[in-house]
User: What shape does this take?
Amino acid sequence: MSGVDVGGESKKRSTNTEINMIPFIDLLMVTVAFLLITAVWVTNSRINADAQVPGPPNPTVELQPVPPEKVLNLHIGENEFGLVWKQGATVVSEIKVPKTQVETEQADRKIIRFPELAKKLEEEWKQQKNHWDPSDRKLDQCILHSDNRTPFKEIVAVLDALYTTKRDMKFNDGSVKQIPVFNMTFSVR
Amino acid sequence: MDHFSRKHHNPHAHVIHKPGSRLMHSVPLKFVWSKVMGHGARSANTSLNLTSYIDFLMVTVIFLLMSFSASGEIGVDKSVKLPKAENVEDVIDAPMIAVNGNQILVDGQLAGSTRAIEELGRLQKLDELFSMMKNKRELWKQLQPNRPFPGVCILQVDENVPALVVKSVFQTAAFAGYPNVSFMVGKISKSGG
Assistant: This one.
C-alpha cells in the first residue's frame, strides 16, 4: 500500500519505489474539513438602484447646460405595464405591455417573472437608446412608477426584467464587461 | 493442504482449527482447494488501491475551493424572506438595512417601524433611520478621510413588504448620503431556477 521499498536483503536497490501517500491523504482530508466548515451555502446577490441624487457642487468646474436625455418611465399597472419614453416633458413614445407573469415554484415559494416585459424592454432600448458605445460609461435611465401597495417581490420581478438587456462596457483596466443597459430609480410623488 | 494427507477425518479430534479460508473445504478435490487458496499465492496482507480515494478527495477539494468565499456569509435577518432574481450582481461590503413586516433594522439595530409608514399611507422620511445612517456615514469619513465616500447601502426587504415602505426607506437612505441603494435578492439560475 504505502511505504518506501528499500529492497529487502538484496544488495541491489529496487528501481520501483512506492511513495508514502498517507501524509498526502491527511493533507487532503484537513483541506476538505476546513473548506466544509467555512463553506457558504446560501448565495445572496444584489440588484442595483440609484436614487439620482446630485453630488456636491464643484466650484472649480463651470456648469454647462445639458439637454435632457430620453428617459424610460416604467409604469406598473394593475393589468399592464406602460413603457413611456420622455425627453424632458415631451413624450417620445408610449407602448403598453400586458402583465403576463410566469410563476415558478422553488422550495415552496412562488417566484414571479415577466419575460414578455423583458423582451419588450430590449426592443424599446434598441430603438430609443442613448448610451450604447462600450466606451460610454453612462447608462440609460429608467424611472419606476408603482402603486404604494405593490409587493416588493413584484418590483424585484420588474427590475429583473429591466436588467435582462445588457451591453458591453469598457473599463479603465481595458476589460470589457456585460452591464445592464438601464439604471433604475423610483418616482416620488 | 494437510487435509488431504489425513485419510480419515475424526470429528472429535480437535474443535479449534487453524485460521484460514473455510469456503468449499468440504469439497475433497485438489483443484478446488487450490482455487480457493488462491493457487497458493495469496498473501495475508492485502493493500488497498488508494488511487480512487485520492481522486475523490481531489475532486471534493477542487469543488470546495471553487465555491469558497473569503468574504464569508452575509447575515440575513431571519424574519426576512428575500425575493429571487436572475440578473444580479455580487454582494459588496456596505451597511445593511433589513426591512421585515414590522421593523426596520440597521446592522441589527432597530431603526423604525414599517407599521407607522403603512398607517400614515404616504411617503415619508424616517428620522431614526436617517440619523443612524448619517452617523454611519460620518464615522466612515472619520475613519477613512482620504477616500471618497461610496454612498452604497444594501436593503434586505421582505418580499411581501409594500412599495410604500420600500420607497420610504430608499428615499431616507438617499437623504442620509447613500444614493446607491442595492436590493439584496436570492440568486436563481438562468435556466429558470
